[in-house]
Amino acid sequence: xxxxxxxxxxxxxxxxxxxxxxKIVVGFSTPFAISWVRxxxxxxxxWMGRLTPxxxxxxxxxxxEGRLTSTADRSTSTVYMELSSLTSEDxxxxxxxxxxxxxLLDLWGQGTLVIVSS
Amino acid sequence: xIVLTQSPDTLSxxxxxxxxxxxxxxxxxxxxxxAWHQQKAGQAPRLLIFGTSTxxxxxxxxxxxxxxxxxxxxxISRLEPEDFAVYYxxxxxxxxPITFGQGTRLDIK
Lengths: 118, 109
Fold this sequence. Notes:
The complex is a heterodimer. Chain A is mainly β. Helices cover 0% and strands 53% of the residues of chain A. Chain A contains no helices and 11 strands. In chain A, the strands form 2 sheets. In chain A, strands 2, 4, 5, 6, 9, 10 and 11 form a 7-stranded mixed β-sheet that branches. The radius of gyration of chain A is 13 Å and the shape is globular. The relative contact order of chain A is 0.33. By secondary structure, chain B is an all-beta fold. Chain B has strands spanning 4-7, 10-13, 19-25, 34-39, 46-50, 54-55, 63-68, 71-76, 86-91, 99-100, 104-108. In chain B, a hairpin with a 3-residue loop joins strand 5 and strand 6 (54-55). The N and C termini of chain B lie far apart (36 Å). The chains are: A mainly beta, B mainly beta. The A-B interface holds A 35, 44-47, 50, 59, 61-62, 95, 97, 99-100, 102-111 and B 33, 35, 37, 44-47, 50, 56, 88, 90, 92-94, 96-103.
């Protein structure tokens, strides 16, 4: 059974970057893709983008183009999400989730809280 | 981009009641590409149902999904205390972006 283990909470200054990791603990198969979804305090879910680890390709939501980078380290089965030029509006919990070939999110990581504050 | 609108935003109900949550799409979508996720307070979301009506492994059979076209529903036949949570519908498929409804919160009356 696949599990996703995310890195711990971060506090960042405005204008800086944050890098969140998502380790894929694989039971039987490698996920087709890993999506990143964020949730601002008290708000709903916002899909940010996805990475296909085996080929390294990314697809991003339009609003994150130029600011979001997702990479994979296949040797450690870890996917990374780096978000730059942070503002207070980026304060949120960031989730990774396994994503099927038709973009169904079927398993979620536990979430990583990122606080952006001066 | 498909916009999903859920109703109501909040529903106050008692354990044992039957509830129906609605998810309306901004255009006709394939019924094989509509999912429901449950998020309990302080936890990550969890996939409950995909393909409109197929329960994910571990989802109790008191949860059922139905719908077609633009209108989809999640029904909980008999609310248990652990069902009080926020429920999100999700559209998926070949095209991006992936979209979610804004969520429906089930509160204990």
